[in-house]
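pinging the channel bc i need a second pair of eyes. not urgent but kinda urgent?? the chain im working w is below, pasted from the shared doc
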Amino acid sequence: MAGSGVACIGVACIGARLYRGRRHRAGALSGSRASSGTDTSTGTIAEPEALGTRLYVNLAMAERATEIAALPVDGVGLLRAEFLLADALGGAHPRQVLAEGRRDDFVSSMGEALLRITTAFAPRPVVYRTTDFRTNEFRALTGGEAFEPVEANPMIGFRGAFRYLSEPEVFTMELEVLARVREQTPNLVVMLPFVRTLWELDACLDLIRASDLGHQRDLKVWIMAEVPSVVHYLDDYADLGIDGVSIGSNDLTQLVLGVDRDSETCAELFDERDPAVVDAIGQIVEGCRRNNITSSLCGQAPSNHPGFAELLVGMGITSVSVNPDAVPARPSCAGRRRTSTAARRFTARRHRPQRYPLANRAGHDDAVSGPVTSNCTGWPPAVVRRASCRPRPLWAARCRSATSMATRHPVNRARITLPNVA
């Protein structure tokens, strides 16, 4: 892949090649999509390769595509659709554009702008996040007041996957754009934002499958992990066939800590490095690893906080997406070696307070025992606890089984009686 291999991650400037840890013992992932790495001739576990943590870039405007594509990055980890959409709509609300019969004009204009980006980065992947305007932003468009409700807290209101299901005509118009662009540049990846529940994702995937985009070969679909419920549903999301999860650390922090990220009064409470947020991120990364799907992070934390990117690498995350100004001008020379500085840091983590991703978990070779006596990261002591490695209690597994695929819709879910867990 062009631009792959090595790069510095954010301000931490970590070499992109790393040792991802030993694989699960034979049979530990029986029934999952992950490979055990077993040598069938000897019955032993083959030594894993040094795998790369890819460095992606965040992008919003087509005008900068050629410039940013020249940077040593592995692709676009977050392409925000909102600016492209607003330009293609001419400042009008999408439902007004449909009402005026200007659908084809929108599809043509939006497709042209998007194609500039996918062409500039080809064959590197471009992860396109479908429209995630909130109601207050949609109301600001021409004609928006006629279509949008007034919400007290749009951040957790009518947005994301639920909006697609409520306004399928708008979502399918966007899918038509993606289908046309992907016919010419198959490096386009689709990512659904703000997925709250299992039934929402299932229904959105049905809309994609029913569109021209869903009939194209090798289509990859990711979701954003912004809502804490993804920690519970991740295995079920993977069963539905998603190919990756990108952690939106801004929204995830907001919802885990209950802090409005736009509030100046509570600004000091908003911290992606809080132990509760790090715990959630660690569980998501481990869940992706368990299901053999891509894990990524596209929030501001790696760009804003030195050391956060290194923590993600230690967790075993597949990729990190940062702002263009956090990308170095050229790759780190450390990456020319098979095992770089980042790799050595990762393999030495048993001497450090972080215990991601597999510490003290049954069935893994790299379990760590004994207390850690030093904190060499400069992070608060509570952050480095091994929270993401807690085993799931049996009662939680029973509840999960009772609320399985058959109960994904709220109407059906109300008919289910959960087991007595007292």
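so The mean pLDDT is 75. and The chain is about 35% helix and 10% strand. — does that match what u expected or am i reading it wrong
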